[in-house]
Design brief:
Helix 3 (115-134) runs antiparallel to helix 8 (266-287), helix 7 (245-254) packs antiparallel against helix 10 (328-353) and helix 8 (266-287) runs parallel beside helix 10 (328-353). The protein starts with 12 loop residues before the first strand and ends with a strand. The longest helix has 26 residues, at 328-353. The strands form 10 sheets. It has a 6-stranded antiparallel sheet with strand order 1-2-3-4-6-5, covered by helices on one side. Strands 19, 20, 21, 22 and 24 form a 5-stranded mixed sheet that branches. Strands 13, 14, 15 and 17 form a 4-stranded mixed sheet that branches. The protein is 30% helix and 22% strand. It comes from Microcella alkaliphila. This is non-specific serine/threonine protein kinase. The chain crosses the membrane at residues 344-364. It catalyses: L-seryl-[protein] + ATP = O-phospho-L-seryl-[protein] + ADP + H(+); L-threonyl-[protein] + ATP = O-phospho-L-threonyl-[protein] + ADP + H(+).
């Protein structure tokens, strides 16, 4: 959370209370800053609407609506909103500061989550969402980016910027402002949203947590929207076979295309999720680690062992309903008794197996079933790694997998499969993944490209582009377009430079030209510079015949590089430089010319006397402008002398 270079808000005191310390994140509508509430001496997050949206009443109202919606909620799983106000022309709101990451960042790092993690996160989100639905508030923009995972373990929903009263289910194009990947069919086709639209979004999030990917994909947002409107969400187990059937049913119920087939609100889904969580917890306890203890006598065949560990339902027990009978909700309800019976039966098997503990102890220690922990071999030479694995009683796959790596030198091990730290049976085959060194690439030409396009081009070339970017004023490249690509040390990387895939880079982005201030009053010029995030100082004052006194002539000596937050020198006009016209009436023409030129005037002679020595004897009779006045230094004075 370092300060954004040149950000004019860093260090400012907002509304006389909130001291801005650094920038946390920047979005399409607003930027979020870390600040200190000086009145209550606590850290807060201040969300400030972008200045260019200040004149858009619709955006401004939506921003203020977030504060009103969230302020109505007081729940441990909803980000608290403390205050809302206006700073200059931009609206702001003050929220609870939660150091941590978003669910999106968690998914990007780990991919699919376990069923237990999915249930934990889903329960917290539904708890907060239940409070919103109970207050007749529909979030309308649920997505992993808006689920915050605090460092202390708290899980909270944030960003109620699109929230709306549950009864206000008529919508225009604004209804589609939510992220397209999580929009319900009714929002896409009819622009209508209620509590069940939030349930659909939560179902898509659970699918993504269980599988590591979204159910619908497409190169264009319209392709994804079409699938949401016309296709049913598949069961997560079709992507990840390890997903339990109970979670399949939970996701399918939440993402039913017809809103009438979904839970009525978050409370209904929360109750079912908790029931499913308890049921799965019983099943996991009964069939988890203890199941590995089920061993037949050493002479028993694998077929006999399988037969011994089968669970037969007690006589008279009700048969489980067919998997494809009824709605997902009905299947969840019907499956609960069967799960409980299965748990009891499996527990009986576990008790019977307890007598085999002595045999299992021998088997897993010195016997054939003994396990070995895969050693950490990262950055070890391939030949040495083979020796180490062999010494541990493991087999090394004859074929080595080769991959490019920015971090591991060529010929050294990147990782193993199975991975380091995993306990495996002796003589398990281990595959070595060995580095071929960094994969070469070339810096593409992105100067002048819009920032989003430049990021996509660089990422396609294999670079890792930092979220934070530097800003600079530039008279040639328009606002929001890229000036240069920089390496990790901040040095420019020219297009065509050889590099490696995975190299971190950052962007220097133009914020347009510095403002034109010539002819503006000093106050107007300073206000314009302040609006663009620049400071100003009066460098000098000078006479000017065209610009009125007190107005700005332009800039003084400017630095070669100008960034937001810099202070620019202004040159202010003192008005015209007036000089008193010398008294030349009665002087000879030549004497008058000499006196006027000494006062730095030009001279225009109007006479019928020939230019020769006669000018020394001919007296000036009239001066234009008036002899008694003043004129601008350097202007032309007309003298008249006739005979």
């Amino acid at each position: 959370m370092s300060a954004a270079p040149g950000d004019p808000l860093i260090g400012r005191l907002i509304d006389g209370r909130y001291h801005v310390r650094s920038r946390i994140a920047r979005g399409g509508m607003a930027t979020v800053y870390l600040a200190t509430d000086q009145r209550l001496d606590r850290l807060v997050a201040v969300k400030i609407m972008h200045g260019h949206l200040a004149d858009d009443s619709q955006f401004k109202e939506r921003f203020i609506q977030e504060a009103r919606s969230a302020a109505r909620l007081a729940h441990p799983n909803v980000v608290n909103v403390f205050d809302q106000g206006q700073d200059h022309e931009s609206a702001y709101l003050v929220m609870e500061y939660l150091p941590g990451i978003t669910l999106r960042e968690l998914l990007q790092e780990y991919g699919a989550l376990t069923p237990e993690q999915t249930l934990d996160i889903g329960e917290a989100v539904l708890a907060g969402l239940s409070a919103a639905h109970k207050s007749a508030i529909v979030h309308r923009d649920l997505k992993p980016e808006n689920v915050l995972l605090a460092d202390d373990g708290r899980i909270k929903i944030g960003d109620f910027g699109l929230a709306r009263a549950a009864s206000a289910n008529t919508a225009t194009g604004a209804a589609l402002l939510g992220t397209i990947a999580y929009l319900s069919p009714e929002l896409i086709t009819r622009g209508v949203a209620d509590t069940r639209s939030d349930i659909y979004a939560l179902g898509i999030m659970m699918f993504e947590m269980l599988t590591g990917e979204q159910p619908f994909k497409g190169e264009q947002p319209m392709q994804i929207a079409y699938q949401h409107a016309n296709d049913s969400v598949p069961a997560p187990s079709t992507v990840n076979p390890d997903v339990p059937a109970e979670l399949d049913e939970l996701v399918l119920w939440a993402t039913a295309r017809d809103p009438a087939d979904r839970p009525a609100d978050a409370r209904a889904l929360l109750e079912q999720l908790r029931d499913t969580s308890r049921s799965l917890a019983t099943s996991i306890v009964a069939t988890g680690p203890q199941q590995t203890m089920v061993l037949p006598p050493l002479s028993t065949s694998a077929a006999a062992m399988t037969a011994e560990t089968q669970v037969i339902a007690p006589a008279g027990a009700a048969a489980a309903p067919p998997a494809d009978t009824g709605t997902p909700r009905q299947r969840l309800a019907l499956a609960a008794p069967a799960r409980r019976r299965r748990g009891i039966a499996i527990m009986l098997v576990v008790l019977l197996v307890a007598g085999l503990a002595a045999v299992a102890g021998w088997w897993f220690s010195s016997g054939p079933g003994g396990s070995v922990t895969i050693p950490e071999l990262r950055s070890v030479a391939e030949a040495d790694a083979r020796v180490i694995l062999t010494d541990e009683g493991l087999l090394v796959a004859s074929e080595t997998v080769r991959e490019f790596s920015l971090d591991v030198d060529a010929g050294l091990v990147i990782r193993t499969d199975p991975p380091a730290g995993e306990a495996v049976p002796r003589e398990t085959e281990v595959t070595l993944v060995v580095s071929e060194g960094a994969e070469p690439t070339t810096v593409p030409e992105v100067r002048g490209q819009p920032e989003a396009d430049a990021r996509a081009i660089l990422e396609d070339a294999g670079f890792v582009v930092a979220e934070e970017r530097a800003e600079r004023f530039d008279g040639e490249i328009g606002d929001g377009s890229v000036l240069e690509v920089r390496d990790a040390e901040g040095s420019p990387l020219a297009a065509g430079t050889d590099s490696f895939r995975g190299t971190p880079v950052s962007l220097l982005v133009s914020v347009g030209s510095i403002p034109e201030v010539r002819g503006l009053t000093l106050d107007a010029a300073q206000a314009e510079l302040d609006r663009r995030g620049l400071g100003s100082t009066v460098a000098t004052e000078t006479f000017d015949n065209d610009i009125a006194a007190g107005s700005v002539l332009g800039y003084g000596d400017l630095p070669e590089v100008i960034q937001p937050g810099d202070t620019l020198p202004l040159v202010v006009s003192r008005g015209p430089d007036l000089v008193e016209i010398p008294d030349v009436i009665g002087l000879s023409i030549n004497e008058a010319i000499e006196a006027l030129r000494a006062a730095e005037f030009g001279v225009d002679v109007r006479t019928n006397v020939p230019e020769s020595f006669l000018w020394n004897f001919t007296s000036v009779q009239n001066v234009i402008p008036s002899q008694d006045g003043s004129a601008v230094r350097g202007s032309t004075i007309i003298i008249e002398a006739f005979v």
